[in-house]
Design a protein that fits this description.
Length: 340
Amino acid sequence: MTDPVSDPVPDPVSDPASERLSVAEAADLAGRVLDEVEKAVVGKRKALVQVLAAVLAKGHVLLEDYPGLGKTLAARSLARALGIDFARAQFTPDLLPADLTGSFIYDQRRGEFEFRRGPLFTGLLLADEINRTPPKTQAALLEAMQERQVTVEGETFPLSAPFHVLATANPIEYEGTFPLPEAQLDRFLLRVSFGYPSPHEEYDVLARRMARRQEEVELDRVTDGAGLLAMQAAVETVAVDESVGRYCVELAVATRHHPDVLTGASPRGSLGLVLTARAFALLRGRDYVVPEDVKAIARPVLAHRITVKPELWMSDASGRRVVDAVLGQVPTPTTLDGRR
């Protein structure tokens, strides 16, 4: 059932136009956010960069990995460093759409119905084990992700910006789960895996826990909701050359013609490549995208949008392998560094 960990009513966010950041200022602020999150999530800088890039691109992320690898900790820490409200919803088979959206409750004293907001009304929602709840509840969440509003009893309630969803899914233990269909997977801008830490990183986790003498990791707020909106506005100023935009389209198209593929990446996939590459370029301190930015985020953007042919289920064919193959096949445009 739901487990809000903060006031479900989001704090008022100031007008993003009141706080404008240059690309360099936004990159510096984003770097400090990553440094703060890394105090809690050890040795996963690459994955954290991908998650933050998705947030800066105004997208949602599916974290798919084995239990105990820090998915929940990463989501909570990111919300803390970004200074936005955080809520967690544990997706179980008996979770209803109203448990997420909220519902009307009759107030006997006032003699009228009052809307009680659900955990969707937050800045960052952790949808924990999204594949353990029925499709009807999954659809309620995905509608909010896409439309950024919820409709209850015919009345529409907009979700305040920023609003982002980090959903987790366990790639094992399929019994009693409801895998997300391809059309719903397509709603996630990125699918990210943390993977197991190296022995050195794993010992670092133990050493830090013993040093602080408590379970909780105390993090500082680096910015707030207005600051995040300003960083997202800075991403919108990052330039994309026509050759790089066409490169994104060619990569998405190539996935549709790969011999192992039943359904390739949709146009939403090529759009996701461009949007995330802009955020990735900003994180690297550039106000323009180079093909290497696209290559760096191609796998988490495209792999989950690809369906391999069912007769290949016993082979090693996968969306990740298809993306790797098309990256090697599609000619890379000339680097733009020399043109700036």
